């Protein structure tokens, strides 16, 4: 199974004190890069989440959003902390005695003072494990999403491989005859140019040129690289970098084939090969 670097998954979970929300999405990246957006109540879960995701993902820019919404029914009636209020009152009087020009605390500032309504902190010891359990479910959905897209990308790449094989299969039988005709034309041109030169000299020149335009090795390497592309895709796993390297090798062989071409048909085939290889390379940029 091959995986795309693009994926998305989201889930919510109702817990005793509210609702957890976790969202995962990713785009292409050369490396594994995380971006966490976590509510303050669950900030302690960031490191375990990073370790969980790193164990299953190898490439991509991953964005993780974790949110928590407390239940309205769990919000108790607001009661001011009388002891804290008296303490603030005494401190304010002391400050105003020493600094008569100081501004007094406003009602809003007093109500926002930490602990003014008692200790209403969440029980993060139980909330964090629940968030991690939800993250495991989201990660499974996320991996399945990337696998589905990876399968489609693999099918596209294999279809391009088949088209390249068809092009090579069509042009290969015609190359010897085309090269022989060109060599005969070259031989005649050499005779016309050299005039009295002996046949041995002409045969040597033609033989040297025949070696230079021989594309049998390029076609053989093309076939070998295509076999390796198919093998890597069928093997699955994190194969994006390996396939990207194979695209460079395929493109190199197509360029050499075009530079050695002496007939328009082979030149056109080389251009078609480069187009198909570039199409494969664009899809491979999305693979993990």
TrEMBL record:
Entries under Pfam families matching the protein: YicC-like_C, YicC-like_N
Key words, A-Z: Endonuclease, Hydrolase, Nuclease
UniProt entry tagged with the keyword NADP: no
UniProt xrefs under InterPro entries: YicC-like_C, YicC-like_N, YicC/YloC-like
Ranges for domain Endoribonuclease YicC-like N-terminal: 2-153
Keyword Hydrolase: yes
PANTHER family reported in the protein's UniProt record: UPF0701 PROTEIN YICC
Protein name: TIGR00255 family protein
Lineage of the species this protein comes from: Bacteria, Pseudomonadati, Pseudomonadota, Betaproteobacteria, Rhodocyclales
């Amino acid at each position: 199974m091959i995986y795309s670097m693009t994926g998305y998954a989201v889930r919510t979970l109702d817990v005793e004190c509210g609702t957890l929300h976790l969202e995962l999405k990713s785009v292409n990246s050369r490396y594994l890069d995380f971006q966490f957006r976590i509510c303050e109540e669950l900030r302690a879960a960031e490191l375990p989440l990073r370790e969980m995701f790193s164990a299953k993902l190898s490439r991509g820019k991953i964005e993780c959003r974790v949110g928590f919404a407390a239940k309205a029914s769990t919000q108790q009636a607001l009661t001011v902390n009388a002891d804290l209020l008296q303490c603030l009152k005494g401190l304010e009087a002391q400050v105003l005695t020493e600094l008569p020009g100081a501004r007094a605390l406003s009602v809003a500032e007093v109500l926002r003072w930490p602990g003014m309504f008692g200790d209403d902190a969440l029980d993060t010891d139980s909330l964090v494990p629940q968030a991690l359990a939800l993250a495991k479910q989201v990660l499974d959905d996320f991996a399945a999403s990337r696998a589905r897209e990876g399968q489609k990308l693999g099918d596209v790449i294999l279809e391009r491989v088949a088209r390249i094989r068809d092009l090579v299969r069509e042009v290969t039988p015609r190359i010897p005859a085309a090269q022989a005709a060109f060599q005969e034309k070259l031989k005649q041109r050499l005779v016309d140019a050299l005039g009295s030169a002996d046949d041995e000299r002409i045969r040597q020149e033609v033989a040297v040129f025949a070696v230079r335009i021989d594309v049998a090795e390029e076609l053989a390497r093309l076939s070998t690289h295509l076999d390796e592309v198919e093998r890597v895709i069928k093997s699955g796993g994190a194969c994006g970098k390996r396939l990207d390297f194979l695209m460079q090798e395929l493109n190199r062989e197509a360029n050499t084939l075009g530079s050695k071409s002496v007939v328009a048909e082979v030149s056109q085939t080389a251009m078609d090969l480069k187009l198909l290889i570039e199409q494969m390379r664009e899809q491979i940029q999305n693979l993990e």
